[in-house]
Amino acid sequence: MAEHTTSLALNAGSVGLAPAQRQALAHIWAVLPHARLVGGVVRDLLAGRSVADVDIATPEPPEHVQATLEAAGIKVVPTGLAHGTVTAVIDSAPYEITTLRQDTETDGRHAVVSWTQDWQQDAARRDFTINAMSRDKEGVLFDYFGGQADLQAGHVRFVGQAAQRIEEDALRILRFFRFQGRYGHGQPDVQAVTAIEKRTDLLKKLSVERVWSELQRLLVGPQAAQQVLLMARLGVLAAVFAQGVRVEHFAALVAVGAPSEPVLRLAGLIDGGAEACARNLKLSRVEESLLKALLTPVGLQPELSDAELSCLLSDNALPVLLGQSWLAQATALLVCPARQAESAQAFAQLRQRLVTLPVPVFPVAGKDLLAAGVPPGPQMGQILARLRQWWQQNGCTPTQEACLAQVPFLH
Predict the structure, then answer these.
(1) pTM to 2 decimals?
(2) Measured distance CA(384)–CA(407) in Å, rounded
(3) Annotation: CATH topology of 159-240
(4) Domain-by-domain residue ranges, the chain?
(5) 61 vs 267: CA distance, rounded Å
(6) Which of 54, 129, 193, 336 lies 20 to 30 A from 309 at CA?
(7) Pairwise CA distance, residues 226 & 156, whole Å
């Protein structure tokens, strides 16, 4: 497609840029006048969204870019010279500047690149048309593949042939669903869906860290339930989750308004197997611990008394119980959709009670048993465990004195 340009004044068409970002860009453009905004920042400016990260491309080689910026007094971090990227740091904010590239070799995971001065060639290596646009310092839009029209139409489309782009990097399969959820409207692109369905096997080539990083954003993003349903239909979820998934439960979890927390959403999706899932996705220890806790049932239901909830709070962290309440509410919705409003009110009240109840603390420690004449050793641990169980059975209300009075009956 021939180069398409549209004149857009930077100030008039850049409501998503913060004043500090505009000032930083003016500083960069003063020394790199041929540089352009590229990728997501251009897409989001056109969509009227706020901009988080500002990515820039330039035809100059990375060593020249670094030297030019440093000569202008701008701090530079050589974040990825092998890939042509340096990061300018202005007022503590990062601005990635990458030399125009072309792929010389790809293997489905990584690409070998060389520098180019051809903007269209650089745009051609990007994933989707809506991410392949650029804007210069005058606010002129360069759109080689119809990205602006696709953005307006809600059409998420690969640049060039979908099958080829997926072969180059299989992570684009997952990225398609994330962008379809955020920017897509109506039916997904037929060419994209066809290519994805045929090459889900390529996902196994990816590092699990990349897969989980992309999944996190997808599971908490817009239209997450619709995209998960589509992924299941195309065989994508089966390629990622060997232990199976609960697509309907995930959709119910989203429908009841559960927080956009990645591990909670993951817990609502997988069909048990927390340890296997954590291992397959290489979750962090914190993420794995939370996933296991969320999927360990404790019998949390709205009908529980305050005393029973207090006992649960004594053994479980509040965020875990709140997460379990959302999972239980999703299950309730599936079991009885007709009582959705009643169930929502009951679970909302349950969460309010959990938040307001004080967390009970077991008032006895090993030193207290020693003072009461219990000799140290394995028996002390057994007595402490039995005593704690008795304390919980009595609503976590007995005092230390009352607990120690039970010690003679626990030997």
Answers:
(1) 0.87
(2) 9
(3) cca-adding enzyme, domain 2 (1.10.3090)
(4) 1-153, 159-240, 244-360, 366-409
(5) 46
(6) 336
(7) 15
